[in-house]
Automatic annotation (TrEMBL):
<feature type="binding site">
    <location>
        <begin position="395"/>
        <end position="401"/>
    </location>
    <ligand>
        <name>S-adenosyl-L-methionine</name>
    </ligand>
</feature>
<feature type="region of interest" description="Disordered">
    <location>
        <begin position="1"/>
        <end position="173"/>
    </location>
</feature>
<feature type="compositionally biased region" description="Acidic residues">
    <location>
        <begin position="85"/>
        <end position="106"/>
    </location>
</feature>
<dbReference type="GO" id="GO:0005730">
    <property type="term" value="C:nucleolus"/>
</dbReference>
<keyword id="KW-0539">Nucleus</keyword>
<dbReference type="InterPro" id="IPR001678">
    <property type="entry name" value="MeTrfase_RsmB-F_NOP2_dom"/>
</dbReference>
<dbReference type="InterPro" id="IPR023273">
    <property type="entry name" value="RCMT_NOP2"/>
</dbReference>
<comment type="similarity">
    <text>Belongs to the class I-like SAM-binding methyltransferase superfamily. RsmB/NOP family.</text>
</comment>
<dbReference type="Pfam" id="PF01189">
    <property type="entry name" value="Methyltr_RsmB-F"/>
</dbReference>
<dbReference type="InterPro" id="IPR049560">
    <property type="entry name" value="MeTrfase_RsmB-F_NOP2_cat"/>
</dbReference>
<dbReference type="InterPro" id="IPR018314">
    <property type="entry name" value="RsmB/NOL1/NOP2-like_CS"/>
</dbReference>
<feature type="region of interest" description="Disordered">
    <location>
        <begin position="612"/>
        <end position="631"/>
    </location>
</feature>
<keyword id="KW-0949">S-adenosyl-L-methionine</keyword>
<feature type="compositionally biased region" description="Basic residues">
    <location>
        <begin position="38"/>
        <end position="58"/>
    </location>
</feature>
<dbReference type="GO" id="GO:0000470">
    <property type="term" value="P:maturation of LSU-rRNA"/>
</dbReference>
<feature type="domain" description="SAM-dependent MTase RsmB/NOP-type">
    <location>
        <begin position="303"/>
        <end position="591"/>
    </location>
</feature>
<keyword id="KW-0808">Transferase</keyword>
Amino acid sequence: MGHRSKNKQPPPEPLKENASPKKLGKRKADTLEEKVARPTKKAKDKSKKTKNPSKPTKKNTPDADAWEDVEDDLDMKAQARSLFDDSDGEDGASVGDLDEFDVDNDEPLRGPVQTFDFDSDEEVPELEPMGKTKKSKQIERPLKIIPTGSDLESDSDSSDSDDPITMANMEARSRALDAQAAAEAELDVEEMQAAAFDEDAEEDFDMDDEDEEVEAGDEFHLPTAEEREEEKKNGGPDVHVVQRRMRHCVRVLGRFSKRAEKGRSRSEYVEQLVSDIASYYGYNDFLAEKLFQLFPVAEAVEFFESNEVPRPVTIRTNTLRTRRRDLAQALINRGVNLEPIGKWTNVGLQVFESSVPIGATPEYLAGHYMLQAASSFLPVIALAPQPNERILDMASAPGGKTTHIAALLQNTGVVFANDANKARTKSLSANVHRLGCKNVVVCSYDGREFPKVMGGFDRVLLDAPCSGTGVISKDSSVKVNKSERDFTLLAHLQKQLILCAIDSVTPDSKTGGYLVYSTCSVTVDENEAVVDYALRKRPNVKLVDTGLEFGREGYTKYRGKVFNPSVKLTRRFYPHVHNMDGFYVAKFKVEKRGKIAQETLDKMDVEIGEEGVNSETNGRTIAFDDEEDKPYLEEAARRRMKAKGLRPPPRKTVAA
Ligand SMILES: C[S@@+](CC[C@H](N)C(=O)[O-])C[C@H]1O[C@@H](n2cnc3c(N)ncnc32)[C@H](O)[C@@H]1O
């Protein structure tokens, strides 16, 4: 595939699991080439239609989860009361055949049902989403349903029409768009096939190419340390050089024994590749390496590349106020082109294009939906709250998941929505009110104070503060502002929070007794390592299936670390695999302390004993490891002093 296909994205939905990572083929090579021309990457002329959302403004808060943060900017006073109070009724306004929005059907719906003037700028884009005049990379995402050749023929006439869309021509226009997408898809396939036979294509990364012949003048030479030093002195390598070198390194690392230069080691190639990835995509060396290590070589490049592309714009229907089909129709009437996200959610909609700002429609202001990344649905689906339960959302601002929980509870029971950051609880409260959640209590404690503040919860969600390495496409500052120390401190905070979250769950719950731990980060330190720590420190918990239909299994071994085998039950989500933000979800069942399976206890004793940690387990609380915690506690004390304007004493210990 060539330039045309750059940035096309399918909707967020499960892709085939365990598929071997895609080979870097011509398409990827083209992608790399295109980077040279950034930011004017797109070759396609899309001037006819105003398509697709630009991302809503996002604050640079590394802890922030996805773009529920746009809610922060809303002036509550401007939030109109519901304009659609009647819409809850089973027989809402008759709006044509929208049965597909009743849960399972994923047919696309697009095109307004009224006449729209695509060239006017009538709406004031308060929150700047979906700006008519802005194009985003999502424009080129292929539609989900690719029509047949006959559709192509019959509608080809109308595909380019500039006539206004009306009830009469909407269907034909819609089919024409599908046909266009199909034609593009066919072209892509042709290009891909052509590339497969193009022996001269130096960009072809085919790792299985037995008969490769390197043309004269195209031999690749891995720079020596001196040459790299020289390159640095001269202001760094040219972008073309970096691209070419990255391709070559990936190629060599794909079949090292055959392709490597004599006398050069694998680690030299890896070092060069990571260094080039860092400079090409703009990461600090530390983070580039950390993320690179998560994947096989070629897949790692896919991951970095996917972080350059925005994820699909998605919204969650607030079922406390409306139904998905009614919401879809209301938005279609406003000129929004959308379709259900996928079969795994019956409340999500993916927005492809809009002629109105999607963060400021009357439906938005009336709380009929939440702008929410698809990945953010996952932990709440895993939590599976049941009516009348008592739930704690331990780190909840700005409330994307809290309001989802409240909706699943159908406004019964109670949700304690906590966040340590008082300022962020304002947007949390605003969202709670806008979405009509009547069972939510907002509070602001450090999560580590639970369960002393209150306990006895049927379910707890800990959507932990994290490094945000899963949401780099939304917040690129993560590329440079995270150091090794940040990861150490974050992982420590996460470990403390998870123990407090576990202790807040009542094992006596008749309906629940679960904790869901999630992050929008892909690093093992913040995910599997935290979960494994919790299993070791709290033998009364076990991991259970998340209930999510897709996602890769959690690592049970990683770079010399061995985790509890049950960590396999946790789920990882990646932008390059699932077309959603990088995310991690683990679900624990909290059991009574006396009821722990003996085999689990035996295992715990061995594991904990091996580490030389306190091995008193049976029924007794295992405290934090004071020695391990010392530097972190010291660091926290230093920070508190600094915050109070006091000068902290010099450091005594250093975190590992
Ligand atoms: C990933 S965000 C939560 C997003 C939220 N769950 C949602 O869906 O909208 C992490 C949150 O943790 C909060 N936080 C950080 N440290 C905390 C702590 N010690 N206790 C409780 N909350 C904390 C941050 O203020 C931030 O709002």
